[in-house]
Amino acid sequence: MLEHLDSPHRSCRFVHVAGTNGKGSTCAMIERALRESGALTGLYTSPHLAEPVERVRVLGRPVPFADFSRAFDVVHEAAERLIASGRIDMHPTYFETMTAMALVLFREYRAEVVVLETGMGGRLDATNVVDPDVAVITPVDFDHEKFLGDTLAKIAFEKAGIIKPGRPVVTARQHAEALRVLEGAARERGARLVRASEWRTSRLELHAFGSRFQAHAPDGTEFRVEQPLIGAHQVENALTAVAALRELGLKPAQIQKGIAAADWPGRLELVRRSPDIFLDGAHNPAGARALAGYLRRFHHGRKKWILFGAMSDKNLRAIGGPLFPLAGELIFTAPAQARAFRPQEILERTGERRARLAPDIRAALEMASGAAPEDLVVITGSLYLVGEARELLVG
């Protein structure tokens, strides 16, 4: 398909990012710093929260609907021609089509460097057509086991598929089982492995709405990082982004400015006050543990309303285990997706009999309208649910 479209995947430089958790946040930090360095940037992420155009950004802004629609026509017509000539046997999938559209748009906008997030896995992902300046692998954990495998080694093998011969790969701190696989893949392909864990932090100050710390490179370089993204896990994501940006040749001042300005909606995002309402797409066990740790550390003693919905391929007990015991009020609901668990199914599978059920997020928010000003409301479990809530709460 891309060859037929005159190879838009060879039209600019790429940073290719895979991993289980922190991909989006890390992409957002890398892109913003590249933008601060003066580059004309592209950013491709998934899923979207409200509108599909959010997946394709140029200089931080979603492409216009008219351009997005025209790119679809270009890709769809190319697919029809290829099917008619027998060169492909079916229309590309939704994600393949979206990826081709994004690459066509980045070429049209003359993007100089594009930060490209994998959709799932890496080895067989539609984004894995590029030869990036640097590959980045964020923490590998359990998610999409049906497709990626039921051990960390199998999942890491899929993520390692983005490592390209002779290209550096930056890895976040990993479980030992996953790290062994990534190290082996890098050796086989002659790719230099850069461990973000070799960066040190000092003077770390974690607070409820971000963090600040001194970052120390293995070569002795050090600089202050102001991190506006919420949660202790964002410190590790920031170090991974910093290590990748150094590989791309950015100066400390550009990195500092970019990370301080990074924005990533729907991930521990505070959207209302009194009561505080947070949105967090914690859709796998590691994400749920990170959210639970944040709530325990910074909001101890406050009554927590947890509004939860999830897609049907998720391990409800593993995700709910860290979160549900923290809830003073628990409401099960569902995003408007055919693949979502119905609220009654979540109740039956988790055995959380104290939970109330709401057919959709609007009804769940109505139930939570009884929260006192000092309470905390958290909407989580699915990025689709977070997107619907964000549209209602933020617009």
Summary tags:
17 strands; UDP-N-acetylmuramoyl-L-alanine:D-glutamate ligase; Protein-Tyrosine Phosphatase, Chain A; 395 residues; globular; alpha/beta
Can you offer a commentary on this structure?
The strands form 3 sheets. Strands 4-3-2-5-1-6-7-8 form an 8-stranded mixed β-sheet, with helices on both faces. α1 (23-36) packs across α7 (233-247) and α1 (23-36) crosses α8 (252-260). The model has no long low-confidence stretch (mean pLDDT 97). The protein has 13 helices and 17 strands. The chain has helices spanning 23-36, 65-84, 94-108, 145-148, 152-159, 176-188, 233-247, 252-260, 285-298, 316-323, 343-350, 361-367, 383-393, and strands at residues 13-18, 41-44, 56-58, 61-62, 113-117, 134-137, 169-171, 193-195, 200-207, 210-216, 222-227, 269-272, 276-280, 304-308, 329-332, 356-357, 376-380. It folds into 2 domains: 8-197, Mur-like, catalytic domain (UDP-N-acetylmuramoyl-L-alanine:D-glutamate ligase), CATH 3.40.1190.10; 269-393, Protein-Tyrosine Phosphatase, Chain A, CATH 3.90.190.20. The longest helix has 20 residues, at 65-84. The relative contact order is 0.12. By secondary structure, the chain is α/β, with parallel strands linked by helices.
Strand content: 15-25%
| CATH architectural type of the largest domain | 3-Layer(aba) Sandwich
> Which class of secondary structure composition applies to the elements?
alpha/beta
Total beta-strand segments: 17
The low-confidence runs, each spanning 5 or more residues with pLDDT under 50, are none
The H/E string reads EHEEEHHEEHHEHEEEEHHEEHEHEHEHEH
Distance between the termini: 36 Å
**Residues in helix, %:** 25-40%
The CATH topology of the largest domain is UDP-N-acetylmuramoyl-L-alanine:D-glutamate ligase
CATH class descriptor name of the largest domain: Alpha Beta
Rg to the nearest angstrom?
A: 21 Å
> Which strand order spans the largest sheet, edge to edge or round the barrel?
4-3-2-5-1-6-7-8
Mean pLDDT: 97
What's the tally of helices? 13
Describe the biggest sheet?
8 strands, mixed
